[in-house]
Write a structure and sequence with these properties.
The complex is a heterotrimer of chains A (388), B (138) and C (349). Chain A has 2 domains: 141 residues, Peroxisomal Thiolase, Chain A, domain 1; 229 residues, Peroxisomal Thiolase, Chain A, domain 1, CATH 3.40.47.10. Helix content of chain A is 36%, strand content 19%. Chain A contains 13 helices and 11 strands. In chain A, the strands form 2 sheets. A 9-stranded mixed beta sheet of chain A has the order 3-2-4-7-1-8-11-10-9, sandwiched between helices. In chain C, a hairpin with an 8-residue loop joins strand 9 and strand 10. Chain C is globular, with a radius of gyration of 19 Å. The model of chain C has no long low-confidence stretch (mean pLDDT 96). Classes of the chains: A alpha/beta (388), B mainly beta (138), C alpha/beta (349). At the A-B interface, helix 5, helix 6 and strand 5 of A face strand 4, strand 5, strand 6 and strand 8 of B. Strand 5 of chain A pairs antiparallel with strand 4 of chain B, so a sheet runs across the interface.
């Protein structure tokens, strides 16, 4: 198994981008990443694209080929594959790209993530997001996607005493970080009261506990670590990659307050990277809902099970805390263009480890972690990166 | 154009009558039914027995849905819970016939037959299970 | 028909209630005046997820809970209603599947305004009598519609009851039944229309009273009885006044009809009306009690039954399923706005 490095990154602005189409967004992110990497088109061995539901959002499947085409590479006949794992589509695309280089098959791979969610109505977008859940035994009965995380939140509150205030603090922290991110969908801090008193979506989760509907794209260029110097001196190595799965339906899980897929993926990644949770300097975790961030920092081993709420309250995960989490603003403030998220998380970690995260820079960040989840936890993928 | 009905028709035994199955090898009960048993795997092939669940259970967790999907609009706010059936399997379902504020973790419930959704005013009606507070038979 | 009768019974009434006074207020009428004039205090309203299929299934399952028969031994199901969820696709098939009686089963849906359920009972009796089937399931249920602001809106409610008819282990024999039918256009609903129409005061004398009076007298002639021979009497109850009046005209007392008179508390459940009245009476009967039931359905017709409770009623634990008293008390009040939403009175594109 060869080492793999990230040699280029690119993101578009995230938000309600009426003027930008699906094809324009992915081409923009890809071009930025390729320019940043120092490679040229002819160096690309393969492309992996993560998108949850291009079919339902823009009526378009077959997007592996579409993206290679929109990026201007159809004449090179590069193998281009779409990867899907609901909200983990981006992270899975990163892993597929990583595996294809680590195994020796490819040297240079472009990975992209894209979702264009605003071309359909808000109701249609919600229904599409709900396809990440179990259609026959969850969505059919009216639970909704926020409802699933609300079921987790209620149980977490019952077992560990997590409070609505602690959930709101996650939103406040992420908005405060988002305000420092020029590409974030929301760039204004919010007050705790605003988050706590927001319109109810699925009790106990309100509007500010939920990540938004977003358009956006992100892209990275991966390269065999021993060839990276050919293109750039800003390479960041992927030192650990792990992926796990679990039951599709939340109700079929053994434990409603733990995402075992995350625990499994993280264990694999930590083992491969030969690091412990306490070695991580900065992390991007999957905060599709505020409760998801609280559960994530427990499942990733940053704090003990049940102590996630206290950690937020004690400001351990703020930008200047012991372990800054979601410096980009997270899915909550940066936005959650579903397929792009997993790739955008890698972009943020790379910026942090390069020292180019500007106002969001974590001092002395040497080792970073990105955590991407699909649905209510049926898929999870974790990557650990280190400056070379 | 009405939506395809086969997907819904196929699940009628499960949604109307909670028909699951039991592993002839280890005795674990599954709902919805599955073959083979994930624990016994090939040892359970051909040994899975159909089982009608009683419909009684306990609420493990719940939420109140305020922002309802399009087929459930008129019902919001409504409670949804994960119910652990007495035989072991867990289901996700609406809780009905009680005040929204009366739903609690640990509450005893029993299944009831209700309309789950319908395909507009022209398509088919899909019935299935919801849960109401357990009735004391004394 | 000595050895044919009711093996078991069950009923269901949705929980929501709307007070007559609140309907009156919505339309600028006198709340107390309307309630006392009609003899109805409040009516039952189905929630958005309830319809005749769900009510029929609840009632049928309640009937099965009270006895030990194997649902596969039910040979026929007839569901009578004027608000079947589908105009074409019988409610009976949904009920049959939900109680495990399929696939060796005869099914059809019935319509005869408020007496479709009792017509179903008559059919089951004949099929059991002719040994075509072992048990028959007759259901009368409705989530009746009424035009907003119309007089019928005060009474049109939701509910139903199910009766298993057979020859073995019967808790009450159906000694005799007869019917009186004419072409009388007192109340109807044209195909494809949402709300029924009616002939105003014509629905009284020439319709309700003529058919019930004639049929009741015919039945008592047939079985050679007088009103005082009965412990209980149930008459169709479109409001709280008509059944009291017709009982008096026939020579029955208020005490005889009290137990089976439910419309003051739940409104007129149409095809369910006399059916839930009979279920309410069965909740309290003792061996040897005699019951007189006369239904009425607009259009028009009446079905009458002479019923005697057997000793087997003592072997039945009636509490295994909700009694009518429990169903009536298990309620939650809603206002006219919620009612309008649940009954699809608000036009949504």
């Amino acid at each position: 198994m060869r080492d793999v490095a990230v040699i280029g990154v690119g993101v578009t602005k995230f938000g309600e981008l009426w003027d930008r189409s699906f094809r324009q967004l992915i081409a923009e992110a890809g071009a930025k990443a390729i320019l940043d990497s120092g490679i040229s088109g002819g160096d690309i061995d393969a492309m992996y694209i993560g998108s949850m539901s291009s079919g339902r959002f823009v009526g378009q499947e077959h997007i592996g080929a579409l993206v290679a085409d929109a990026s201007g590479f159809s004449h090179l006949h590069i193998p281009a594959t779409r990867v899907e794992g609901a909200c983990a589509s981006g992270g899975l695309a990163v892993r597929q790209g990583y595996l294809s280089i680590a195994s020796g098959v490819n040297d240079v791979v472009v990975v992209g993530g894209i979702e264009k969610m605003n071309d359909v109505s808000g109701e249609a977008a919600s229904e599409t997001l709900a396809t990440a859940a179990d259609q026959e035994w969850e969505s059919f009965f009216g639970v909704t996607f926020p409802g699933l995380y609300a079921l987790m939140a209620r149980r977490h509150m019952y077992e560990y005493g997590t409070t609505k205030k602690q959930l709101a603090e996650v939103a406040v922290k992420n908005h405060s970080n988002g305000a420092l991110n020029p590409n974030a969908q929301y760039q204004r801090p919010i007050k705790l009261e605003t988050a706590m008193n927001a319109t109810m979506v699925a009790d106990p989760l309100g509007l500010f506990d939920c990540s938004p509907v977003t358009d956006g794209s992100a892209s990275i260029v991966l390269c065999a670590a021993d060839k990276a110097k050919k293109f750039t001196d800003k390479a960041i190595k992927i030192i650990g990659s792990g992926q796990g799965s679990d039951t599709l339906a939340l109700h079929a899980r053994d434990n409603l307050c733990t995402l075992e897929a995350t625990v499994y993926a993280a264990k694999k990644a930590y083992k491969q990277a030969n690091v412990k949770p306490s070695d991580i300097d900065v992390a991007e975790v999957h905060d599709c809902f505020t409760i998801a961030e609280i559960i994530a920092i427990e499942d990733l081993g940053f704090v003990k099970k049940g102590e996630g709420g206290k950690a937020i309250e004690n400001k351990i995960t703020t930008l200047d805390g012991e372990l800054p989490v979601n410096t980009s603003g997270g899915l909550k403030a940066k936005g959650h263009p579903v397929g792009a998220t997993g790739v955008a998380q890698i972009v943020e970690i790379v910026e942090q480890l390069r020292g180019t995260a500007d106002k969001r820079q974590v001092k002395n960040a040497k080792v970073g972690l990105a955590h991407n989840v699909g649905g209510s936890g049926a898929t999870a993928v974790v990557h650990i990166l280190e400056a070379m | 154009m009405v939506e395809g009905v086969a997907r819904f028709w196929r699940e009628i035994p499960q949604r109307y009558n909670l028909i699951g199955n039991e592993c002839g090898s280890c005795g674990r009960v599954y709902f919805p039914p599955r073959e083979p048993c994930p624990f016994c795997r090939r040892k359970s092939l051909g040994k899975m027995k159909e089982l009608k669940l009683k419909g009684t259970g306990t609420v493990l967790t719940y939420t109140i849905i305020h922002s309802a999907p399009h087929n459930f609009e008129g019902q919001a706010p409504y409670p949804v819970a994960i119910v652990k059936l007495d035989e072991g399997p867990r289901v996700t379902a609406q809780i009905v016939d009680c005040d929204v504020n009366d739903v609690k973790i640990g509450m005893k419930v029993q299944s009831t037959f209700r309309k789950i959704q319908q395909d507009g005013n022209i398509g088919a009606i899909y019935y299935g299970y919801k849960f109401k507070p357990l009735r004391n038979k004394k | 028909m000595k050895d044919i009768g009711i093996v078991s019974y069950g009923a269901h009434i949705p929980r929501f209630r709307l007070k007559t006074g609140d309907i009156a207020r919505a339309w600028g009428k006198d709340p107390e005046g309307m309630a006392s004039g009609l003899g109805i205090i409040e009516k039952s309203v189905p929630s958005a997820d309830q319809d005749v299929a769900t009510i029929s299934v609840e009632a049928a399952r309640a009937a099965l809970d009270r006895c030990n028969i194997n649902p596969q031994d039910i040979g026929a199901i007839y569901v009578g209603s004027e608000s079947h969820p589908y105009a074409v696709k019988p409610t009976g098939t949904i009920v049959g599947e939900a109680i495990g009686a399929t696939p060796l089963l005869m099914v059809a849906d019935y319509e005869f305004a408020c007496k479709a359920g009792t017509a179903a009972i008559q059919t089951c009796i004949s099929m059991v009598k002719s040994n075509m089937i072992k048990y028959g399931l007759a259901i009368g249920a409705d989530t009746s519609q009424a035009a907003p602001g119309d007089a019928l809106e005060y009474a049109a409610s939701a509910g139903g009851a199910a009766f298993i008819i057979g020859k073995e282990n019967i808790i009450a024999t159906i000694n005799e039944t007869c019917s009186f039918t004419t072409d009388t256009p007192d109340f109807w609903r044209r195909a494809g229309r949402k709300y029924p129409a009616h002939g105003g005061r014509f629905t009284g004398g020439p319709a309700y009273f003529k058919h019930i009076m004639s049929n009741a007298k015919n039945l008592m002639d047939l079985v050679k009885t007088k009103p005082e021979d009965y412990d209980y009497a149930i008459f169709h109850q479109p409001n709280g006044k008509f059944p009291v009046k017709v009982a008096k005209m026939l020579g029955f007392t208020y005490d005889q009809i009290k137990q089976g008179l439910l419309s003051p508390y739940v409104g007129n459940t149409y095809s369910g009306a006399t059916m839930i009245g009979l279920a309410s009476v069965l909740d309290v009967v003792k061996p040897g009690d005699r019951i007189f039931l006369t239904s009425y359905g607009s259009g028009a017709g009446s079905d009458a039954f002479d019923i005697t409770v057997t000793n087997k009623i003592k072997d039945m634990d009636r509490k295994k399923a909700p009694l009518l008293s429990e169903l009536i008390e298990n309620k939650e009040y809603i206002d006219y706005a919620a009612y309008a939403k649940y009954r699809d009175l608000l036009y949504l594109e």
